[in-house]
From TrEMBL:
InterPro entries: TPR-like_helical_dom_sf, TPR_rpt, Ycf3
Repeat (TPR) residue spans along the chain: 81-114, 115-148, 150-183
Signal peptide per UniProt: 1-20
Key words, A-Z: Repeat, Signal, TPR repeat
Transmembrane segments: none
A family per Pfam: TPR_12
Name of the featured protein: Uncharacterized protein
Keyword Hydrolase: no
Record keyword Membrane present: no
Length: 199
């Protein structure tokens, strides 16, 4: 079948999205970074944006424009990486973690300097309980230029707390608050850490 020629835009960073501010127990990860596009890639992007705001609305139907774009739409390497990333965000919401990892890994191959993809793959690692790999991906996103984004530090803090490294968890929560003083989740998690009795 002949590919449909569509031009897709790589829109760059959108705001992080925080879920319920209930800490580690019911908030498996606090952010998704989305990359944009046009037509089918754009619809894929919009669907990934919706599920990042509300994972409960995720359905396999939301994957269809992503699948179509990846299969039939001619895109640049960066825009194809963006579409794989957006599809991966939807797969996380559907708890299709193997598919999410596949999309993020393809995206990284196509666009290895895209910090957003490392944040999203870090989220997938967090969801699957691989906190050390989540830490590595979040840290890589900082090295690639996300050092000014409080939510990456929030996710790092949560990952460090999960593996029992309280000092680094505290440091990252404080960094998240320094960058975003109204970061309520980081404030709540830091307060929880500081209120724990000394062992």
């Amino acid at each position: 079948m002949k590919k449909i020629s569509k031009f897709a835009y790589l829109l760059g960073l959108l705001p992080f999205v925080s879920y319920a501010q209930c800490g580690l127990e019911c908030d498996p990860t606090s952010s998704a970074i989305l990359l944009g596009g046009d037509n089918y890639p754009r619809e894929c992007y919009l669907n990934s944006q919706m599920v990042s705001h509300n994972p409960d609305i995720a359905s396999t139907n939301l994957l269809e424009p992503c699948d179509f774009a990846i299969t039939f739409v001619e895109m640049t390497r960066n825009n194809l990486a963006a579409t794989h990333t957006n599809r991966g965000v939807i797969h996380i919401a559907l708890e299709n973690y193997d598919s999410a990892f596949s999309d993020f890994n393809i995206g990284m191959t196509l666009s290895p300097e895209a910090a957003q993809i490392f944040v999203n793959r870090g989220n997938a690692f967090y969801h699957t309980g691989n906190y050390q790999m989540a830490i590595e991906d979040y840290s890589q996103s900082l090295e690639l230029g996300f050092a000014g984004f409080s939510e990456v530090y929030l996710n790092l803090g949560k990952s460090y707390e999960r593996i029992g490294n309280i000092n680094l968890a505290e440091r990252n929560y404080r960094q998240a608050i320094e960058l975003s003083p109204n970061q309520a989740e980081a404030q709540n998690l830091l307060q929880g850490l500081l209120s724990q009795p000394e062992l």
